[in-house]
Write a structure and sequence with these properties.
By secondary structure, the chain is mainly alpha-helical. Helices cover 68% and strands 3% of the residues. The longest helix is centred in the last third of the chain and has 31 residues. The chain is flat, with a radius of gyration of 23 Å.
Length: 259
């Protein structure tokens, strides 16, 4: 799944919604559009089609009034993750040689495959970041539930997003406590045993916290059902967005079939 941005990381209006036209689009349509766009782009293999898909994602970013620099940094982080794979593809795919490095031939076919993967990954991730990653966790969970996703899965996702930072803070407190007691990590038995204790304590603290949270929710009348915080109704802007999304994906599929 794409990373969910905090309200401080996106352009928000005074009511806490994403500013601009994109913030007014039904969250359900944004999730569906991002999912279908990802499926279409992954199924395409033509470089002109993938370049157009990346251009559409970039146009969506520019039209969404999101902070361009921060979003591009996130894209760069993703590109850094797959950079090694892209670098070795020209030397691992057989074909017409371009040049030889240390006895290995770089081929045009390998370069084309690397460019294809890079365009696909950037187009999909950028669209997911803009359409889905800018939603607040509660809005994302409620939109998924409105799309008839299993309630248990939606609740698991919402709790995971909410308490990842809590568990990280707990981990940092335990590490500080270990440093105060003179712990210095190394490649020895004491370090392995201490890190094992750390992981075990994290699991114990997580279980205890989950029990307290469940007790608190039951005291507030929680029965496992998600109550939607808004009435989802399609409006004119939603119809325009849906029509534009269908047109864009139809164009991509048509070009892929022709090319």
């Amino acid at each position: 799944m794409a990373q969910v941005l905090s309200p401080q990381q996106v352009a928000l209006d005074p009511e806490g919604r994403l500013s601009g036209w994109l913030g007014d689009v039904d969250p359900r349509l944004r999730i569906l559009a991002a999912s279908l766009f990802a499926l279409v782009v992954v199924a395409c293999a033509s470089l002109p089609v993938l370049a157009l898909a990346f251009g559409l994602s970039l146009a969506l970013l520019l039209g969404s009034r999101l902070p361009l620099g921060r979003m591009l940094k996130r894209m760069a982080a993703m590109d850094g993750f797959i950079l090694f794979t892209l670098a070795i593809l020209p030397f691992s795919v057989p074909g017409d040689a371009i040049f030889t490095l240390w006895g290995f031939d770089a081929t045009w076919q390998g370069v084309a495959l690397a460019v294809e993967i890079a365009l696909t990954a950037n187009a999909v991730v950028l669209a997911l970041l803009v359409l889905v990653g800018t939603m607040e966790p509660v809005a994302l969970g409620h939109a998924l539930y409105a799309l008839r996703m299993p309630a248990g899965l939606v609740q698991l996702m919402m709790f995971s997003i909410r308490y990842i930072d809590v568990l990280r803070a707990e981990y940092l407190r335990l590490r500080v406590a270990m440093k105060v007691r003179g712990f210095r990590p190394g490649t020895n038995r004491h370090t392995y045993r201490s890190m094992g204790y750390l992981v075990g304590m994290m699991l114990v603290r997580a279980v205890e916290r989950s029990e307290r949270i469940m007790d608190a929710m039951k005291c507030r009348g929680f029965t496992g059902q998600i109550h939607l915080h808004r009435d989802y109704r399609l409006r004119g802007l939603d119809a325009i967005f849906a029509g534009g999304s269908v047109l864009a994906m139809t164009l991509l599929v048509g070009m892929e079939l022709v090319l």
